[in-house]
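Q: How would the structure tokens look for this protein?
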Amino acid sequence: MTQTKQDVVDNITRLRAMFKASQHSQARLLAQTLLTESPENHSYRLFLMQALKKLKLWDEAEDLLVKATNDHPEYADYYFQLCLLQFSFSQCEEAKKNLLKAMDLKQNSVPYYYQLGCIEAQLGNHDLAQQHWEQARALYSIPAIQKAAKELDIRCFLSSCAKLGDQEAIKNCDCTDSIKNTYLYCNMNKAVAKDLFQGIDHFSDEYLGAIGKTLGQRFFQCTIANMDIESPYFTVKDGLRKTSGVPQHYIRSVYLLGSSRVFSPRCEDSLTMASFLQAIYTEGGDPVRVVNRSVPGLPVENDFLHFLQCGVKHDDVVIAFTHIMAQMPPAKLDLTAKIYSQINAECRNRGARFFVFVLPHAYDIKSPSDRERLLVDLAAETRPHIDYMGEQRLAAKLFSPEYNLPGKSLCEVIQRPHDLGEVFLDFSHWNHQMNELMARHIYDFISTPFLTEPSFKQTDPELFSFADAKQTSLAYLKKTAVETYSGNQDISQWIAEVKREDFSGKKIGAIVMNCNPFTWGHFYLIEFAVKQVDHLYIFAVQEDQSIFPFTDRIDLIRKGTAQFGEKVHVVPSGKFIISSFSFPGYFAKEEKIDPSETDSTTDIVVFGSIIAPALGITHRFVGEEPNCAVTNVYNRNMKFLLPAMGIGIYTVPRKQSEGLPISASRVRQCLKDKDFDTIKTLVPPSTYTYLLSLPDTQQG
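A: Here is the predicted structure in token form.
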């Protein structure tokens, strides 16, 4: 569809509004849609790139820009944006090559000269850096932008100071704390970096960039998990950070729950706390696998959801690590302790063991180094919302007689004197050497028999039960989904299109159907649902990845349900119900893939947190799936997630014919065999007439 100039202006205005409101997921979806419609529009592509960066989908952003430079080598901004992305991960040589290509296409650009100066400074070429910054300043001749020129001067000065390690000059500079923070907190000079990464023979600027990626997150396996990534040093698969050295055969598992300090974002796979712990078990001949289920930045409620996915068995070990929290009030302390207590109780029920460790940060060092003192001061200035004593108050509660949880504080591990040199990468994260030391302390603690086993304290189930912990954690999942998708204009527009206003205030149900094609089995499920509710939405899967086209499938549903009149509303499912966005594995289900390779969490949480409340849906009906493993897992996940979102889930036994379930796949096989006598018993007359009308090529 050709867009007018006004269409483009309106779309860009929408995208800018989304960025201003921090609706980056929505901006990404809109930009992708617009770019599909207008693939030559550079603005849409750059908005998509910015959205990917905001969502921390660095690899996708880089792939987009590399393709853009190949497809449009005449467009300087693509090279410049690729340069900025590479520079942010210390890939200075590659960044410089792309910047020089941009400068060949667009001369006398202030940002280009400024960035070239930054790259040269990072490479240690300070004289060249100063020359490029002087060129940038010389181009500022318009009085209206003198303020910007002054800020450029400051940033050039600070960047130079950061590369030289002159922290005092940065602290005394006449600029805002946020600008200082950029150069103190984020720009690590080479001398400090080499000290922090000592012992790593392959350390380099490129290495630092490769392991320093901040990942996005996604709804996955009924939790919030990490986005997958694979690189020589940094791997996340199925939402989990890789643990190196996991044995092929093991008899029990150790699960780690926690946030970024367990994830170890600045350490390669083999140097995380989990990998060091794995190495200790392996060296001792103990056939154990260590599973790192940490997710940066998320609270204890998400830990509980990950615990539910562990499948903990007899003799397994679950280890929870505390989180740094913003303003940890007493209620949050209590909730954290109660959730850990419920995990502990469930582990005991299964014959497993649970431990909780309170992790330290630089604030807890009694005799800090100059750098550690600087990190503490900087954190106090730039992160005033963090409750630095909260974890110690939490420790007192966890190990008090009230809860008596097994575990300890690890603050003693970081105390000086030690011979590790600098270990803190920033205020709360440490390097590989401290990971190894932490792993050793943890192993020694959990492997040493207690002289006196801590007496088990069960939280009064009337005050807080396992079901309460589950409900609380799922409420957090729903809240996150609402925050992520509530402002999505595509969802809002689709809801406005399908909503039946006359359904308001009634008991409303929903069925999602592909109907490939529509059968008596589908009719039976609809007939059952109609009897349970006042009104019923039927969402016909809109994505055209089925044997029969969507237009035919939805027409067959409408004809097959015509007898129910206004009580049934058949509508397209849109982009957010069983689509390549929300549930891509659904369309591969006939390829005999492992159900674990597919995931329906996004589909379910969007339905339960956004779509169902907007349409007043309180009941969802599904048919039993005895033959399809993927759909069976989908139904199971709905039973786990939807009730916590206020939606009842009802499973209806499949209608049978001649002792076999009636299914669309059975009809398709009969069609292939040209067995119309059997088909006539499996489908309504309208579907039968439709199938008879197909050309022979489609019948066979």
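The first helix runs from residue 5 to 20.

Confidence is low (pLDDT under 50) at residues 141-149, 182-187.

Upvote if useful.
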